[in-house]
Inverse folding.
């Protein structure tokens, strides 16, 4: 089919196929970088499932990080019985050692 031919041509030319990007996270990387990034993302989530919740979260590795941060705020607000609109995030960047 034309769709499979286009898929093959994209991979052959080192481009990430449009078909993949319509069902995936946005990426401007060539196909090799896209696949490496996809493997890293899958490993992150697989470790989360098999080893438990991580200490640090790879926010940019998530497809829709706004849903994750909203869910985190909701869980925190419920746990501490406070209004969700009073919950804010604070980030600290570690000093290089």
């Amino acid at each position: 089919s034309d769709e499979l031919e286009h898929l093959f041509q994209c991979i052959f030319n080192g481009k990430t196929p449009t078909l993949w990007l319509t069902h995936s996270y946005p990426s401007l990387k060539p196909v090799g970088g896209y696949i490496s990034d996809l493997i890293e993302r899958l490993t992150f989530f697989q470790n989360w499932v098999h080893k438990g919740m991580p200490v640090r979260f790879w926010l940019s590795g998530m497809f829709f990080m706004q849903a994750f941060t909203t869910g985190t705020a909701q869980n925190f607000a419920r746990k501490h019985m406070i209004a969700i609109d009073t919950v804010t995030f604070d980030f600290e960047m570690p000093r290089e050692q």
